[in-house]
Design a protein that fits this description.
Layout (H helix, E strand, L loop, with lengths): L7 H136 L1
Amino acid sequence: MEALIPDPGKVVFFFGLFLVMYAVLKRFLFEPYLDALADRDASTSGAGDELDNLRQQINAAESAIAEKLATARATGAEKRDEIISSASSKAAEVTAAGQEDARKTIEAGRSEIDAAEQSARSEIKSAIPDLAERAAERLMEGVS
C-alpha cells in the first residue's frame, strides 16, 4: 500500500514544474495564439461588414443599370415606332405618287391610241371612195 501513497517532495516538485511550464506556455504559446485568434476575428468581422457594404453597392448598381436599360429600351421602342410610322407614311406617299404617275401615263397612252385610231379612221374614210373606185375598175376589167 505504500506504493500508492505519493512522495510529498515529488508532488511539490511536479506541481512546481507544472506551474513553471504553465507560465512559460501561457506567455509563449497561449497568449500569442489567443491574440492571433482575436486579430483574425476582428479582421474577418470587418471584412464581413465590408462585404455586406459591397453587396449593397452591387445591388444598387444593378438596379440603376436595370432602370437605365429599361429607359433605353423604351426610348428605342418609341424611336423605332416613330421611324416605322414615318416610313409607312412616306411609302404611302411614294405609292400614291407612283400610282398617279402611272394613271397619267396610261391616260396619255390611251389619248395617243385614240388619236391614232381617229387618224386611221379618217384616213380609211378618205381612202374608201378611192378603194371603191379601184375595186369597181377591177371588177369591170374582170367582166369584160
